[in-house]
Amino acid sequence: MQQDTKVKRVAVRAIDIGHSNTKYTLGRKDSGNGNAIKTAMFTSIAPRVAKTQTINTTGAQRSSASIIGVGDADYWVGPGAASQAGGSEPRFVNDDYCLSPKYHALMLGALNEMAQEEGAGHELMIEQLVLGLPLTTYVRHADALRSRMTGEHRIGRAGESTLRQVTIKDVSVLVQPHGALMNLGTSRFAALSGLNLVVDAGGGTLDWFMTRGTEPNWAKSGAHAKGMLHCGLAVADGIKKSWRNQFEVMDTIDLALRTNAESFTVSGHDYPLAAHRADVEAVLAESVNSLLESTGDLDGVSRILFVGGGARLFHDYMKRAFPRLQRVMTIDSDPVFANLLGFHIAGEYQLRRAVAAR
């Protein structure tokens, strides 16, 4: 069959890669709620493909998991990557995560999903891509990430011919919780008056972003390198330390924590969370205390918005710890995708400005 050599072009896309999930936008789609931004995600794991493994690469790229080459290594990436995982798939949390081959494989995997959504057989061109980084690494790594992602990207197995190319004309990088604030501002701009605090409870970090109106207060914004993964690790370490390297078990614990379940089940055994609440609370307290060291007293804040996969867990903890602030605390209506939606909105704004300036 002759390969489709046409270039498919799209205006704006956004990607938010965390230690738990990789989230991405697929453009605006006509739906019952109007021209809404379509989002999707897959688990942030990237099992290595053995060099000796023989695979029908073309077929693999069309399945729910794609083979992504980075350097001389291949990775399974995408919604079905979990089915290709080995016995141990640890999730490491470190400051150089966004520079790692695994992170780049996840990024290319998200781009590949976008290309497949558009039916781009040979090449997808993106006018504006918006990415996010935690406040812990933004200053050090934003420029490098922007440079790395601008331009052409081949998708295919290492050392073999390119199956698909994605070209990105312009890239911008935002601090992750800024996206949530931009998303909020599009629907309720009046809510951005006064002091606003976004608390972003991610997998690897707790980020906080303070603004007065729409103007960031960088001195009172920051991050602590412990998030939902560490809450789950606190539970796992109290039962069986080897669980920390088994992502299926960690995802089970994570879901129980995020939904405030009484227990979780592993290998047919029920484990009450009450026995591990003190260990989880210690992680929450450490992260929130770090936030307070940066922000100071929160009595003057008009709104505290919780986003991220751990939004409810951190929201409930802070409500108990600071009952006087309950009236200004709220969980975003779509906490998992709040940052990502804001990234996409920011990209649309940036592209409109660029077009107007031409």
Characterise this structure.
With 358 residues, the chain is an alpha/beta fold. It has a domain at 7-177 and 339-357: ATPase, nucleotide binding domain (Nucleotidyltransferase, domain 5), CATH 3.30.420.40. It is built from nine helices and 16 strands. The chain has helices at 57-62, 101-118, 138-149, 176-187, 228-237, 247-258, 277-295, 311-321, 338-357, and strands at 7-17, 21-31, 34-43, 66-70, 73-77, 123-133, 151-155, 164-175, 195-201, 206-212, 215-216, 222-224, 263-266, 269-272, 303-307, 329-331. The strands form four sheets. Strands 3-2-1-6-8-7 form a six-stranded mixed sheet. Strands 9, 10, 11, 12, 15 and 16 form a six-stranded mixed sheet that branches. The chain has a two-stranded antiparallel ribbon with strand order 4-5. Helix 4 (176-187) crosses helix 9, helix 5 packs across helix 6 (247-258) and helix 5 runs antiparallel to helix 7. The radius of gyration is 21 Å and the shape is globular. Residues 57-62 have low confidence and may be disordered.
CATH topology tier name of the domain at 7-177 and 339-357: Nucleotidyltransferase, domain 5
Mean pLDDT reading:
90
Q: CATH superfamily of the domain at 7-177 and 339-357, please?
A: ATPase, nucleotide binding domain
Contiguous low-pLDDT stretches (5 residues minimum) are 57-62
**Treating each run of at least 4 consecutive H or I residues as one helix, how many helices?**
9
Distance between the termini: 40 Å
> What is the level 1 CATH name of the domain at 7-177 and 339-357?
Alpha Beta
